[in-house]
């Protein structure tokens, strides 16, 4: 009998076995001789808490093997008498078993059973228990399983195992409350996987593999006493492999390869078109610039050249203005409009048509303009708004960023900012990033770049940015001069001077203009034709008035006479810059322009045409112009477009 | 006071307008505050409590046994084992007898059992605290059981009131409680005493659960409960 060794092997941790209400033979511990076993009780068990049985073993004693030699006696705690009673029923079918039926069983009351030999009057073994502690329920019945689901890959599946409580256990009444434990294993495995205790009558098993055979069994115990009964019959679970899982595998492979291929293709495209993609995705931030003006100039502080260009000396640079920006309104009409609304603040400057042009910007839609960008515009009299739709403030900001080379001075209104008519424009105190000119020309030079008028009536855009038409040659050429007096050796027509003076006379900047004039302000209007890198062919502007060709390092825009010069000659010194491009490479013109540069004249000029090389023509051959070669006297409004100005519609007829 | 009155006045229409019996979601201890809970629900909750108490008591007993009880004295198979204190009234043990017990008697028995264990459990807690290496879980469990026992008592009182329409005083049965748990005189060690206490409590918890379940069976299906 293994009971002695069973008890001897009890470690402290095997409490469940210790607590086993089967009460496996306590009495055998006394035997010292394993070969000789005394009679002992092997255990008492109850199946349903209503009856119980006890078994004993006679041991190896020879004289007790006959039946009847040993008796089982018991007594209950609540017995009135303290007598041991005989086993009520020795079961006939099983040897050495005593059966206590329901009439004799009570729960919650201690029983004591002893193995007694009457003949010897000796008790070999005693066992005390309470009925509820020795319940080992019958196995559950009707164990079955249903398939819950199969994984996508078809490799795993889940099942739900269900059963019913043993019929002997009176669960419905609540006499027994059972807890179940399900175990399963693979067919050929020897280790059972134990699932958690389940109080219901079903349990789900997850993660079974298809194609494998499993065995499932369940047993139950009375709750809180944890003496599990016998196991139920084993059921077999088997789900065959699903064949179509094979077919899904290549599909996934194809998908994976396809995705990889597409990714590789995308990478190739990206790498091959990297430049373009970079441009598309990360458009280059436009550097602060004025169209027609090299941003490098702005940065390097070459204010003289800048002023020169912007003043209109380099008129040809601005012909790249897209034609569509031009309204169909003729320039003349614009001028007329300007004349109709004289600025309140400018009393002195009414005479100056350029003044008017410059100052009447607020009445027109083209509010945004670049100072000095003598882009042919319908209101080209105003200093060149390259973007008519640009709002004032934006222009202000833009111009401020571009042109303000002084930290404090910001060009608030570079475009059509009427000095007097736009009082609302605020001068933007924007530092000039990158435009700081460390080597600014003397103070006057600073000024002439852009005039900053704090508050109040905005100073007119610094005339310096415009190539002011100082004179018109008989041939139709326009003599341009920068904004301020550069001290050109040639005489500036007094009218021009006066005009110029009048243009700015009314404003506070008259003194500034003086200063400017004294400076060598040279705008550099860079017009570089992208195709040819040619030069502006300003036919009419040939007779440009460059303030100081001898200024070192200055870049000025000369307008070669329309007829006299040939293209190559023009190209010699006239760089043409398209204004359309984002980048305008500066084109320094080291050579001096033709000697016919005139003293500073009008502050601006108007591009009248764009030639095939996208050069601005300041004096187109169109007869539309009024024959008057000289600009109107400042006092008079310009009813017609003077020679040297480009109407927008003319731009469409680019004449090479 | 006026504020509470105002609140009551304000909230009362809400309760009435709902037209749904107020569900008492709290523990049984707060059932009294609930306006209405059905008998079945209350019985279910009481049974839940009893089941939980039974389970926890069994776990506590096991824990205590593992930690402190020497091996030979375990699992109550010692003939000279403990004897739980007898109650003031006998509780039938056989199934047939129990099934014949009336509802009233069942409920009252449960109540008596619950009330008789309130004090001993408190006493047990204090003794367990004196143990040097009592595991925290054991202390928590016993503490939990004491609390739940009180809730169970309240629930059973309400249940009695509802099912039996018997309004009775809950304190009348406290006299039967045994404050110092009487044990066999030969058991002197405190360990064994406590072990006995836990075991007896486990048994009584089982009794409570069984009675309540039997009661529930009768509520749902009177006939099948007597078939066996």
Automatic annotation (TrEMBL), chain A:
- At the top level, the lineage of the source is Eukaryota
Q: Which positions fall inside the Fibronectin type-III domain?
A: 139-242
Which region is the signal sequence?
A: 1-20
Q: Transmembrane stretches, by residue range?
A: 249-271
Quick one: where's region Disordered?
A: 341-361, 480-569, 616-656
What does the UniProt keyword field contain? Glycoprotein, Membrane, Receptor, Signal, Transmembrane, Transmembrane helix
Composition-biased stretches, type Polar residues, lie in 536-548
Q: Name one Pfam family in it.
A: EpoR_lig-bind
Pro residues: compositionally biased ranges: 620-640
InterPro entries in alphabetical order: FN3_dom, FN3_sf, GHBP, Growth/epo_recpt_lig-bind, Ig-like_fold
Report the protein name in the record: Growth hormone receptor a
Provide the organism lineage as a comma list.
Eukaryota, Metazoa, Chordata, Craniata, Vertebrata
TrEMBL record, chain B:
Q: Which GO terms describe its biological process?
A: animal organ development; growth hormone receptor signaling pathway; positive regulation of growth; positive regulation of receptor signaling pathway via JAK-STAT; response to nutrient levels
Taken from the UniProt entry, a GO cellular component term is: extracellular space
Known PROSITE patterns for this protein? SOMATOTROPIN_1, SOMATOTROPIN_2
Task: Give its localization.
Answer: Secreted
Q: Which InterPro entries match?
A: 4_helix_cytokine-like_core, Somatotropin/Prolactin, Somatotropin_CS
Q: Tell me where it mainly resides.
A: secreted
Name of one Pfam family that matches = Hormone_1
Q: Which family does it belong to?
A: Belongs to the somatotropin/prolactin family.
Q: Please name the PANTHER family in this protein's record.
A: SOMATOLACTIN ALPHA ISOFORM X1-RELATED, SOMATOTROPIN,PROLACTIN
- What is the name listed in the Swiss-Prot or TrEMBL entry for this protein? Somatolactin alpha
Q: Which organism is it from?
A: Oncorhynchus kisutch
């Amino acid at each position: 009998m293994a009971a002695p060794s069973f008890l001897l092997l009890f470690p402290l941790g095997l409490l469940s076995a210790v607590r086993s209400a089967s009460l496996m033979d306590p009495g055998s511990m006394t035997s010292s001789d394993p070969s000789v076993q005394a009679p002992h009780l092997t255990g008492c068990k109850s199946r349903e808490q209503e009856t119980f049985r006890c078994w004993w073993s006679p041991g190896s004693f020879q004289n007790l093997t006959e039946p009847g030699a040993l008796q089982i006696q018991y007594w209950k705690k609540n017995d009135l008498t303290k007598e041991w009673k005989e086993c009520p029923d020795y079961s006939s079918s099983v040897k050495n078993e005593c059966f206590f039926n329901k009439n004799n069983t009570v729960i919650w009351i201690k029983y004591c059973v002893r193995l007694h030999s009457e003949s010897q009057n000796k008790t070999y073994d005693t066992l005390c228990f309470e009925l509820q502690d020795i319940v080992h329920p019958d196995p559950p019945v009707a164990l079955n399983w249903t398939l819950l689901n199969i994984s996508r890959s078809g490799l795993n599946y889940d099942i739900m195992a269900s059963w019913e409580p043993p019929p002997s256990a009176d669960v419905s009444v609540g006499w027994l409350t059972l807890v179940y434990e399900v175990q399963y294993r693979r067919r050929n495995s020897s280790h059972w996987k134990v699932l958690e205790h389940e109080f219901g009558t079903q349990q789900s098993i997850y993660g079974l593999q298809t194609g494998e055979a499993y065995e499932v069994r369940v047993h139950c115990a009375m709750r809180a006493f944890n003496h599990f009964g016998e196991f139920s019959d084993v059921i077999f679970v088997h789900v065959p492999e699903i064949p179509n899982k094979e077919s899904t595998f290549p599909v996934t492979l194809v998908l994976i390869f396809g995705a990889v291929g597409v990714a590789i293709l995308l990478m190739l495209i990206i790498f091959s078109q990297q430049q373009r993609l970079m441009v598309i995705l990360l458009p280059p931030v436009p550097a602060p610039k004025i169209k027609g003006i090299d941003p490098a100039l702005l940065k390097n502080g070459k204010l003289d050249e800048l002023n020169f260009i912007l003043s209109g000396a380099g008129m040809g640079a601005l012909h790249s203005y897209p034609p569509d920006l031009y309204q169909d309104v003729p320039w003349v009409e614009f001028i007329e409009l300007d004349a109709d609304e004289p600025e309140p603040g400018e009393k002195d400057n009414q005479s100056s048509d350029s003044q008017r042009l410059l100052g009447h910007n607020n009445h027109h839609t083209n509010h945004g303009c670049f100072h000095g960008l003598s882009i042919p515009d319908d209101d080209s009299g105003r200093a060149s708004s390259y973007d008519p739709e640009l709002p004032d403030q934006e222009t202000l900001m833009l111009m401020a960023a571009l042109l303000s080379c002084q930290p404090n001075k910001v060009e608030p209104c570079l475009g059509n900012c009427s000095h007097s008519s736009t009082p609302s424009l605020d001068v933007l105190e924007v530092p000039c990033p990158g435009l700081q000119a460390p080597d600014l020309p003397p103070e006057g030079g600073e000024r002439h770049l852009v005039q900053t008028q704090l508050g109040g009536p905005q100073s007119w855009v610094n005339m310096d940015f415009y190539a002011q038409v100082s004179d018109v040659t008989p041939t139709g050429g326009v003599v341009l001069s920068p904004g301020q007096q550069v001290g050109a050796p040639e005489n500036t027509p007094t009218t021009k001077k006066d005009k110029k003076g009048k243009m700015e006379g009314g404003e506070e900047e008259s003194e500034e203009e003086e200063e400017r004039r004294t400076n060598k302000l040279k705008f550099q209007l860079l017009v570089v034709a992208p195709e040819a890198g040619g030069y502006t062919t300003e036919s009419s502007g040939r007779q440009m008035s460059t303030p100081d060709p001898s200024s070192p390092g200055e870049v000025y825009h000369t307008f070669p006479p329309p007829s006299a010069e040939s293209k190559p000659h023009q190209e010699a010194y006239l760089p043409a810059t398209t204004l359309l491009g984002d980048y305008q490479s500066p084109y320094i013109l080291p050579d001096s322009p033709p000697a016919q540069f005139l003293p500073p004249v009008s502050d601006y000029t108007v591009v009248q045409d764009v030639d095939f090389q996208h050069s601005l023509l300041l004096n187109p051959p169109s007869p539309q112009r009024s024959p008057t070669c000289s600009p109107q006297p400042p006092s008079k409004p310009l009813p017609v477009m003077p020679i040297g100005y480009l109407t927008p519609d003319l731009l469409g007829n680019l004449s090479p | 006071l006026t504020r509470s009155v105002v609140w009551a006045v304000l909230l009362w229409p809400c309760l009435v307008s709902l037209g749904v019996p107020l569900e008492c979601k709290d523990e049984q201890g707060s059932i009294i505050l609930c306006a209405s809970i059905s008998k079945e629900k209350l019985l279910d909750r009481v049974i839940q409590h009893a089941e939980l108490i039974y389970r926890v008591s069994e776990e506590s007993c096991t824990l205590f046994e593992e930690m402190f009880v020497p091996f030979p004295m375990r699992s109550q198979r010692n003939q000279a084992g403990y004897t739980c204190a007898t109650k003031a009234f006998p509780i039938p043990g056989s199934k047939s007898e129990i099934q014949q017990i009336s509802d009233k008697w069942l409920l009252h028995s449960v109540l008596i059992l619950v009330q008789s264990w309130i004090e001993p459990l408190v006493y047990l807690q204090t003794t367990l605290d004196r143990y040097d290496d009592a595991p925290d879980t054991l202390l928590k469990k016993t503490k939990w059981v004491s609390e739940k026992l009180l809730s169970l008592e309240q629930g059973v009182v309400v249940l009695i009131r509802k099912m039996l329409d018997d309004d009775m005083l809950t304190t009348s049965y406290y006299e039967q409680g045994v404050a110092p748990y009487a044990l066999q005189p030969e058991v002197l060690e405190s360990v064994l005493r406590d072990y006995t206490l836990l075991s007896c409590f486990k048994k009584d918890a089982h009794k409570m659960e069984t009675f309540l379940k039997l009661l529930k069976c009768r509520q749902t299906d009177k006939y099948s409960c007597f078939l066996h």
